[in-house]
Specification:
Elements (H helix, E strand, L loop, with lengths): L5 E6 L2 E6 L4 E3 L4 E2 H19 L2 E7 L9 E3 L12 E4 L2 E4 L4 H9 L2 E10 L8 E8 L7 H14 L5 E4 L5 E6 L6 H18 L4 E2 L11 E4 L8 E3 L15 E2 L1 H5 L12 H8 L12 H9 L1
Parallel strand pairs: 13-14
Antiparallel strand pairs: 1-2, 3-4, 5-6, 5-9, 7-8, 9-15, 10-12, 10-14, 11-12, 11-16
Helix pairs in contact: 1-2
Organism: Paenibacillus glycinis
InterPro entries: LigD_pol_dom (IPR014145), NHEJ_LigD (IPR052171)
Pfam families: LigD_Prim-Pol
C-alpha cells in the first residue's frame, strides 16, 4: 500500500491541506489532482460567478472518474473556518464564494459542480430560462443539429439564446430573463417550444418523459428547469474520460457541428481568456409577450 502524501498551500490568505497530489483523477488525460487544482483555479472566476447565490451539489470521485462516486449536498466535515454554508430544507449547502472554498472542494475530489436553477435571494423568480436537450443515445451525432434547430426557433420568436454543452452528452439552451415570470410560467413556454419541435421534427425530438419510450430521439426537457432542481454549472468539469467542461458556444460553432469533448480542462482556460464568458453577451429579456401569445392560442 502506498503511503499517503500531504502538503499545504497558501491561497488568498488561507492555508489548505492538499492530499495525494499525484493521484490520477482523469487517467485517460493524465490529469492528476495537482493538475486538476491548477486548472480549477484558472476556471475559478467564471465558475464561482455562476454558482453565486445558488444551492450547490457536487459529485465526488475519491478514486478518479473510473471509480465510485457519490452526490454531496451537505457540507463535508470537518470544514475549515473560511467555509460558509446556506441552510435549506435540513441541508447545509456549501456557499461557493471564493477560490479557497473551491480548491478545498477540489481536494476532496469534487469533480462536478451542479447549481440550483433558483437563487437563494429570490427563489420564486428565475434569472434564466433553460431548455435541456437530452439525447437518448450515449453518442448522439445529431445533438448540434438539434441545438441549432432549437436556437433558430427561439430566434424566430425574438428570443436570443446561448447554447451550452453539458460536458456529457447533451446541450442546454440558455436564455437570460428579467425576473418577471415564475418557473411555472416559463414551463408553459418550454412546453410550447418542445411540442413544436417534436411535431415539426418527429424523427429528431420528443417530449416523452420516459426514456424507455423515446427510442433514439432527443428529449426536449423543459420540466427540469424548476425550483429545487439543478443544472451542471457553466465551466464545471465533468467526470468523463475526456475531462470535458460544460462550455457555452458561439452559434457558428454549433453550426459547424462542434464536438462536446473539444472543450476540456486542458484547453478551456485559454478559450475563456480569448473569448470571455459568452453567457454575458445577451442582456436579460422579458418573455412575457411570448407567454401572452401562447395564452391566446
Amino acid at each position: 500500500m502506498s503511503r499517503a502524501v500531504k502538503g499545504t498551500i497558501l491561497v488568498a490568505g488561507q492555508e489548505l491541506t492538499i492530499s495525494n497530489p499525484d493521484k490520477l483523477l482523469w487517467p485517460e488525460m493524465g490529469i492528476t489532482k495537482a493538475v486538476f487544482l491548477q486548472r480549477l483555479a484558472g476556471l475559478a472566476p467564471w465558475l464561482l460567478k455562476h454558482c453565486q447565490d445558488r444551492l450547490l451539489t457536487t459529485i465526488r470521485f475519491p478514486d478518479g472518474v473510473n471509480g465510485k462516486s457519490f452526490y454531496q449536498k451537505n457540507c463535508p466535515t470537518p470544514a475549515p473556518d473560511f467555509v460558509e454554508t446556506e441552510p435549506q430544507g435540513g441541508i447545509d449547502y456549501v456557499k461557493l464564494t471564493s477560490l479557497p472554498v473551491l480548491l478545498w472542494l477540489g481536494n476532496l475530489a469534487c469533480l462536478e459542480y451542479h447549481a440550483s436553477f433558483d437563487r437563494v435571494s429570490d427563489p420564486a423568480h428565475p434569472t434564466e430560462w433553460v431548455l435541456d436537450l437530452d439525447p437518448s443515445l450515449e453518442e448522439e451525432p445529431r445533438i448540434m443539429e438539434a441545438a441549432l434547430l432549437a436556437g433558430d426557433l427561439l430566434r424566430s420568436l425574438g428570443i436570443a439564446s446561448t447554447a451550452k454543452t453539458s460536458g456529457a452528452t447533451g446541450v442546454q439552451i440558455i436564455v437570460p430573463v428579467i425576473r418577471d415570470l415564475t418557473f411555472d410560467e416559463l414551463r408553459r413556454i418550454g412546453e410550447f417550444v418542445g411540442t413544436y419541435l417534436s411535431d415539426k421534427h418527429p424523427k429528431l425530438f420528443t417530449v416523452e418523459r420516459l426514456k424507455k419510450h423515446r427510442g433514439d430521439l432527443i428529449y426536449v426537457d423543459y420540466l427540469q428547469h424548476y425550483q429545487g432542481k439543478t443544472i451542471i454549472a457553466p465551466y464545471s468539469p465533468r467526470a468523463r474520460a475526456a475531462a470535458s467542461v460544460s462550455t457555452p458556444l458561439h452559434w457558428d460553432e454549433v453550426r459547424r457541428d462542434a464536438a462536446i469533448a473539444d472543450y476540456h480542462l486542458l484547453n478551456i482556460e485559454k478559450r475563456l481568456q480569448r473569448e470571455g464568458d459568452l453567457l454575458d453577451r445577451i442582456p436579460a429579456q422579458s418573455l412575457r409577450p411570448i407567454l401572452s401569445f401562447i395564452g391566446k392560442r
